[in-house]
Amino acid sequence: MKIIKLIVFIIILVLNKSLFSQNNDELVVKANQLIAVEKYWEAIKVYDEIIKNDPFNAKNFNSRAVVKERAGDTKGAIADYSFAIMYDKNFALAYHNRGSLYLSIGENEKACSDFETALSLGYPRSRRFFEQNCKK
Q1: Helices (H), the chain
Q2: At 75, is the pLDDT very low, low, confident or very high (cuts 50, 70, 90)?
Q3: Closest CA to 43 of 17, 1, 76, 82
Q4: Beta carbons within 10 angstroms of residue 42's beta carbon
Q5: What angle do the packed helices 92-104 and 58-71 form, to 10 degrees?
Q6: Do 21 and 59 meet the contact criterion of CB atoms below 8 Å apart?
Q7: So what's the architecture of 2-133 in CATH?
Q8: What pLDDT digit, counting tens, does each position of 29-63 carry?
Q9: How far apart are CA 52 and CA 40, in angstroms?
Q10: CA 135, CA 1: separation in Å to the nearest integer?
Q11: In the chain, what are the domain boundaries?
């Protein structure tokens, strides 16, 4: 009996995950439409819902961080880039994005560390940033 309950639970979990995934695809489209017309705070609210549906997805945190950065929420963007990195230590783009933001606020040491990590993970775009701002 316990095995049957476990199987039913797993099936329900899988079905819910696919429903959230489908819903998130629609929400991403909505967020992108809002970003296109520079309604960043509304897009952030949509990303809040996306993250609520899939709270451990590093790409969602990175995407919301980009929008927060455009909206002028520097601290929020850094926090979201950091969550993206926490959930995926090999997410080179999140390191690069956070490094670029650190650079823009004068946190050069942190920026250089992030660019170096992004480079070590194979993100070639960070090379120019690293060479221009970090080589001594």
Answers
A1: 2-36, 40-53, 58-71, 74-87, 92-104, 108-120, 126-133
A2: very high
A3: 76
A4: 16
A5: 20
A6: no
A7: Alpha Horseshoe (1.25)
A8: 999 999 999 999 999 999 999 999 999 999 999 99
A9: 18
A10: 64
A11: 2-133
